[in-house]
Amino acid sequence: MTRPELCRPVPVADDASAAYWAGAREHRLVIMRCGDCAFYVHPPRAVCPRCQQETLVGEEVSGRGTIYSYHVMHLPGVPGFTPPYAVAVVELAEQPGLFAVGNVLDCPPEEMATGMAVRVTFEELAGSDMTLPQWSREQA
Amino acid sequence: MTDYTMRDKSAIVGVGHTGCTKDAGAAPEAVWMRAVREALDDAGLRPADIDGISTPFTDTWPMGAVPTPFTLTESLGLPGLRWHAGPLGGAYSLGSVASAALAVSTGQCDTALAVHCMMRPKKKGPTAYNYRGAQAASGVYAHLAPYGYSVFVQMMATVTRRLLDTNGLTREQLGRLVVDQRSNALRNPLAVMKDPLTLEQYLDARWLAEPLALYDADMPVDAAIAVVITRSDRARDCRSRPVTIRHVSTFLGPRPDWVFQADYAELFPADLGRDFWRRAEIDPADLSFAEIQDGFSVYVPLWLEALGIVKRGEAGGYIGDGNLALGGSLPTNTHGGNLSEGRLQGGGAVVEAVRQLRGQAGERQVDGATTGLVTVGGSPTVCAALLHV
């Protein structure tokens, strides 16, 4: 049988995402933003898709967002995860359609809801030097 | 009038379909050649009449059970080919027919064969999922797999959740679609599903990735289809009644994933529909039926809205009112679709459209069918075709 704690995939930083993952290690949510047209881009990439310039730089954002959508996974077999578990697509406060994926760590699957306000938190990924941006419910 | 060069210049003159089973008990080559022999016989043609081949992949060697132009050339004992290609718009089954239609319409070849074959994974267990996150997750998967998001059904579940919560769709409406398609499958001897399905059974089924449950996902099968496409001016010499290819369109979405796209209700953008009807010079109201690839139930409302058959936010109500059932205003997936006929990635839809237009659809025949839509695409690459007699 698989041992979930050993199998959870570890993200690999590349040239485009180095600032994002370095920020996460410092518990800062750093999103790529175009120095020319101010457009936020996530996942990180090398060129701004709005103005085609190599002007994306990491910028710390508020860490606030709302759940745009989510699902509750019930199938077994995803390494590192025991169903049921929820995965959220979070729309960041900075820009419509700017999405990040994560788990709302303090929210059981049955309490997930589209439109729920969340705030970034960070999870050290066991067995690696990577830190994952994650989410928790915004306190009312 | 704009000269759309391909318009009505090619026709489907032969179709073959093995039928869908849980285990064909034969090698992939045997399975796809059953469909090829049937299609050639249907057209009254011999292998030597084929001078073009298109398949879902164009690799030198077969991709699993899916044949390539090379493997088919070998299977048919041909000395070589004038033309070969992959699928237009990456849309496996219909895409292969569409690229053949373009080739035939523009003089690349005269008579082309398009083939698709699917075989169920014979190995059981987690590896059967299309799991994409390696132990080290890179590229876009670095932002998905560490969160347990790596199986395709999860993407479709997340899209469905958004549509349920903000786009006027309900699970009961999706259930109506699934149940209607199951009753169509019961009138289709090629379908793998032989038992009736009720809305209660649909709603009570186990979750795959909530809000998608067991009957929202297509049914893996062993099956193959083959389609013979020739020049319209030669089609009348063939044995069967030709079905004319009016137009084919493809669309490439803005991203290869269905996660980071800004508006989940427009995964197939509305531009696709406007462009398609204009170029096909047909009004969607004139359709006799539609065969819309349904790898998951939710593809159908997405397609209906993208093609402008209904307005955004209205697909759920349209489906719930029974418009897609046999006898409804737009009978859809009359063969049962991928959900109930079997997972042929739209291959069954192509064959069904041809049989409907020839009046060969038996108990599920749409009366007086003259114009049919076929769409294939369950990723941001899609293909649509308009066929008529």
UniProtKB/TrEMBL annotation, chain A:
Signal peptide: none annotated. InterPro entries: ChsH2_C (IPR002878), ChsH2_Znr (IPR022002), NA-bd_OB-fold (IPR012340), Thioester_dehydratase-like (IPR052513). Residues 59-123 form the ChsH2 C-terminal OB-fold domain. This is DUF35 domain-containing protein. It comes from Pseudonocardia oroxyli. Residues 21-51 form the ChsH2 rubredoxin-like zinc ribbon domain.
TrEMBL record, chain B:
Gene3D superfamilies: 3.40.47.10. The keyword Transferase applies. It comes from the Bacteria. Signal peptide: none annotated. This is Acetyl-CoA acetyltransferase. Keywords: Transferase. Residues 276-378 form the Thiolase C-terminal domain. GO terms for molecular function: acyltransferase activity, transferring groups other than amino-acyl groups.
